[in-house]
User: Which sequence fits this backbone?
C-alpha cells in the first residue's frame, strides 16, 4: 500500500564531460509498442538537425518487447535514441529516469501516443529562443485528442473543448501551471533538476504533471502557450475510459491538495468555454453537458477514494510521519 512516503527524486549527478544537446525528447511508455514506434518515427523525421537533439524512451515495465524493438530502430537511426528500462513505477518515475539520462538543455515531454508534427522540435526551440532562452521559461504546445484518421470522435472533441481548451488560450501569452500537461510541453533541464523532478508518489497518469508544474511555478517558471508547436494526441476515448480517467484524476487531486493545501485543485471551466459549448447544435450541447456532469461526479468520487486511502494509510501507520 502506498503510504505517501515516496519523495521527489533528487537531481541526478551527470559526468561533466558529456556534451549537451539542444533538446531531449522524453517519452515514458508501457506496453504500447506499436503506437510508440509511430511516435518515435515521427521524431526521426523532424526538420531539426539530427545531431542537435535526442529521443529518450523510458520503458516502464513493458512486457510486449518494446525495448528490443526500440534497440533495432535505434541501431539504424540518425537521431540518437536512448532506451531506459525499469520495473513498472508509473509515468512520473519513468519520466524521472528519462530526465536523468537526458543531455539536452531543453527537455520536451510527450506521451507514447503523441504524434509530433514534423517541425515540433524546431518550434519548441524557437519559442524558447524568442523569450531569450531564460532558464525559468517553459513552452506549452498544442496536443489535441484525435483518432488515427485525423478526425476526433465526439468524446475526444468534448475533451478538447472542456478539458484542454487550447482554443481559449491566447498564442504567445503566459498561462497557469495547471496547463503544464506532459503531452506536449518543454522546460529547461536545469530547472527540472533544481526542483527535483516529478513526485513519484503519483503512480498513475493523473495530476503528476500539474503537481510538478506547481513546484516549477514556485521556483519561478513562466509557462507560455505556443500553438504552432503541434502534435496529435492519438488516444482512444470512450465513456468507460473517461470514467476511469476521472476517478484516477480525483484521487490524484486529493493527494495534490494534501501536499499543497494552498492550491485550488478543483477549477471550474471558464465562461468562454461554457459559452462555446452552448453554440453547438442542441443534441451535441446536451451530450456535452451530460458528459461534463458525469465527469464532475466521477472526479468527486475519485477524490473520496483518495481520502479513504489516505485515512487507511494513516490508521495503519500511525507513528510514521507522512512526507510528501
Assistant:
Amino acid at each position: 500500500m502506498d503510504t505517501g512516503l515516496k519523495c521527489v527524486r533528487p537531481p541526478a549527478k551527470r559526468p561533466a564531460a558529456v556534451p549537451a544537446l539542444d533538446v531531449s525528447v522524453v517519452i515514458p511508455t508501457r506496453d504500447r509498442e506499436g503506437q510508440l514506434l509511430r511516435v518515435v518515427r515521427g521524431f526521426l523525421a523532424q526538420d531539426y538537425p539530427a545531431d542537435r537533439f535526442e529521443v529518450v524512451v523510458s520503458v516502464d515495465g513493458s512486457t510486449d518487447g518494446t525495448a528490443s524493438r526500440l534497440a533495432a530502430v535505434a541501431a539504424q537511426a540518425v537521431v540518437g535514441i536512448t532506451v531506459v528500462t525499469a520495473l513498472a513505477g508509473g509515468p512520473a518515475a519513468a519520466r524521472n529516469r528519462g530526465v536523468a539520462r537526458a543531455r539536452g538543455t531543453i527537455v520536451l515531454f510527450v506521451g507514447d501516443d503523441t504524434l509530433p508534427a514534423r517541425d515540433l522540435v524546431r518550434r519548441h526551440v524557437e519559442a524558447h529562443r524568442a523569450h531569450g532562452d531564460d532558464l525559468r521559461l517553459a513552452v506549452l504546445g498544442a496536443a489535441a485528442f484525435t483518432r488515427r484518421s485525423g478526425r476526433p470522435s465526439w468524446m475526444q472533441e468534448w475533451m478538447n473543448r472542456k478539458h484542454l481548451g487550447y482554443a481559449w488560450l491566447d498564442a504567445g501569452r503566459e498561462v497557469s501551471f495547471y496547463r503544464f500537461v506532459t503531452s506536449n510541453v518543454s522546460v529547461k533541464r536545469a530547472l527540472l533538476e533544481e526542483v527535483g523532478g516529478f513526485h513519484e508518489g503519483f503512480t498513475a497518469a493523473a495530476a503528476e504533471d500539474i503537481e510538478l508544474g506547481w513546484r516549477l511555478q514556485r521556483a519561478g517558471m513562466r509557462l507560455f502557450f505556443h500553438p504552432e508547436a503541434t502534435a496529435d494526441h492519438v488516444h482512444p476515448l470512450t465513456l468507460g475510459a473517461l470514467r476511469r480517467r476521472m476517478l484516477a484524476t480525483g484521487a490524484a487531486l486529493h493527494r495534490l491538495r494534501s501536499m499543497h493545501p494552498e492550491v485550488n485543485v478543483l477549477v471550474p471551466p471558464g465562461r468562454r468555454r461554457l459559452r462555446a459549448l452552448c453554440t453547438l447544435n442542441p443534441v451535441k450541447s446536451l451530450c456535452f453537458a451530460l458528459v461534463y456532469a458525469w465527469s464532475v461526479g466521477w472526479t468527486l468520487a475519485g477524490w473520496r477514494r483518495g481520502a479513504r486511502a489516505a485515512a487507511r494509510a494513516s490508521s495503519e501507520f500511525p507513528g510514521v510521519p507522512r512526507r510528501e
Observations:
- The domain at 21-236 is CATH 3.90.550.10 (Spore Coat Polysaccharide Biosynthesis Protein SpsA; Chain A).
- The first helix runs from residue 33 to 44.
- Confidence is low (pLDDT under 50) at residues 1-7, 319-324.
- The two ends are 15 Å apart (CA to CA).
